[in-house]
Design brief:
The protein has 144 residues and is an alpha/beta fold. Helices cover 44% and strands 15% of the residues. The chain is built from five helices and four strands. The chain is globular and about 40 Å long. The model has no long low-confidence stretch (mean pLDDT 91).
Amino acid sequence: MENPFSSDAQQRIINAIRQAEKATSGEIRVHVEPHCVNPDPVQRAIDVFAQLGMHQTKDQNGVLFYLAHVDRKFAVVGDKGIDAKVPADFWESTKELLRRHFAAGDYAEGLSQGIERAGEQLKHYFPYASDDTNELSDDISFER
């Protein structure tokens, strides 16, 4: 199964990204694949982050939610700009929020809540400016 989400669930995640990005110059992406090709999901997320060109945002404030659904592995990584500003436990507490939902099999809800949480931090540290442009696609990327 390449895509674990119904079309409704996908739309819910995309809507969460769009809602979160309304108030910030930050960029949020979700990448889903069946298997993690690296034993370390964080390293795989860093590789995907680069493949998606997320390091090219103006303020280095991209956040990637990575999910390898068959392997049941995931990671949340942020670029240098946002990583330098969020509280020290932010990434770990966000992963814990995702873990609770994922354990119950509710990937869409977990991702939506995690995205909302990341959006709050991005809004706080990188508020929306009138000249902001959406630098990255809001669509979920899928590895085939």
